[in-house]
Amino acid sequence: MKSVEKKISEMRQRKSQYLKGLDETKIKLQHEQGKMTARERLHLLYDSGWYDELYTFAEHTSTSFGMAGKHLPGDGVVTALGSINGRLIHSASQDFTVMGGSVGEQHAWKICEVMNMALKNGTPFISINDSGGARIQEGVLSLRGYGKIFYYNTLLSGVVPQISIIAGPCAGGAAYSPALMDFIIMVDKTGQLFIAGPQVIKEATGEQISAEELGVAMTQATITGNIHFIARDDADAIEICQRLLSYLPSNNTQDPPMVGDGEIVIMEDETLNHIIPDDPRDPYNMWDVLMRIFDPDSFFEVQPHFARNMIITFARLNGRVVGIIANQPIQKFGAIDINASDKAARFIRFCNAFNIPLVSFVDVPGFLPGVEQEFGGIIRHGAKMLFAFSAATVPKVTVVLRKAYGGAYLAMSAKSLGADRVAAWPTAEIAEDRVAAWPTAEIAVMGAEGAVSVLFKDEIKNSNDPIAKRKELIEKYREEFASPYPAAAEGMVDSIIEPKQTRHFLSISLESLRNKRELRPAKKHGLIPL
Description:
This protein is of the alpha/beta class. The N and C termini lie far apart (about 65 Å). The protein is about 35% helix and about 20% strand. The longest helix is centred in the first third of the chain and has 18 residues, at about 5-20. It has 20 helices and 20 strands. Strands 10, 11, 12, 13, 14, 17, 19 and 20 form an 8-stranded mixed beta sheet that branches. The protein has a 7-stranded mixed beta sheet with strand order 1-2-3-4-5-7-9, with helices on both faces. The protein has a two-stranded parallel ribbon with strand order 6-8. It has helices at about 5-20, 25-30, 40-45, 105-120, 140-155, 175-180, 200-205, 210-215, 215-225, 235-245, 285-290, 340-355, 370-375, 380-390, 405-410, 450-455, 455-460, 465-480, 485-490, 500-510; strands at about 50-55, 75-85, 85-95, 125-130, 160-165, 170, 185, 190-195, 230, 300, 310-315, 320-325, 360-365, 395-405, 420-425, 425, 435, 440, 440-445, 495.
């Protein structure tokens, strides 16, 4: 046999032996738990199931604690590249069937190498987490490996999109890598995410809680806000990931993927002219507004279970991707609280980093009052939204539907915070460089009720009928000041539009801002109030 043929035969044999090293019993157990294997997940993730596996023959070099001579295929992680919707994507998928997917030195090195490739090539990075955590047999080498992964997560941040799928355990220090990424998709029931497990918590504090209560998807989605999407199973998680990528550019030098030819399609929906309740205290569902303005079936809501008084979602307008931030009046009357502030600020910063225009829909009575909010730091958290919108240089368009009171209005991208276009409905509020308001908008320091109580306190008190007098003054104040016209007179609103014209306003505004350039003072980075 020729030497070349012999070497090829040897390579094939080594590859065969490598795959034989995978434990069939553990693979079967993985399936019984409703989980795919690392390679099955990648096969489903990439176009036509094809991917190029990298560092297949990487092995650990540890000799302590029974590790000498122990064969761990791929050192418990599969690193790969391939295409998703025709675009190059790099990934790492932990293999729980190999020593519980534990992270050792070579395991971490493989992940860092593929992340470095994503950085150099400007491609999104996807991490599929299914690991028992640090490989304690390798001690500080495992710890150093985690540190390197966190370092690369930070290097990639704002350069290429990073998506984490939590498909199994992800505990302890391992949880920080997903937390440093842009989006987390968590598989219901099989995914687990926490820093200290139930046993550690019990020993440290005496508190008792099950792993299911502590680290499951719904807890992380509704209470902590750590994750963005809940998936039914591995296949659903991968489908969510693929759909999410369809809204994102490959890197920060590109625009997001577009659908269609970009032709501006103007549609007017008469229902919008009647959607705001006559009583300013009556709530309505903001989704009823959004669904009538943007391209049909183009919404992709982020964190739908967390801080539901604030909506953040991707959508398309004339085929182009936008990021929407909207108050939700049917939840806490649309008031902004701590969680809503954090949710919105992070989304704003992501969209700005990846060239996605921002559209705000405002109906906000203020920041949520209360001792718990004050002691929880609503000032600091609310300031994150002010900072994020002020720092954003992508096109920013604001539509004020109804209430736009005080600092909470500013936090929703007012003109003074750099909004490019602001419109108000006749019932509406404010925004910058060009702001539109509906005729229903009310833009003011505070609501009519609060303003009257401050301005006319003595007049009401000395009246023969204080209740009737207060009501009279509220109506008078609302007619004179609680409208978009004073704000428009001061240039705080660019246009007052019929609600049915909102799509037209947004389409023209965003088209006119496509070549927007905004210079900022040279600096390392701003200091967001974390």
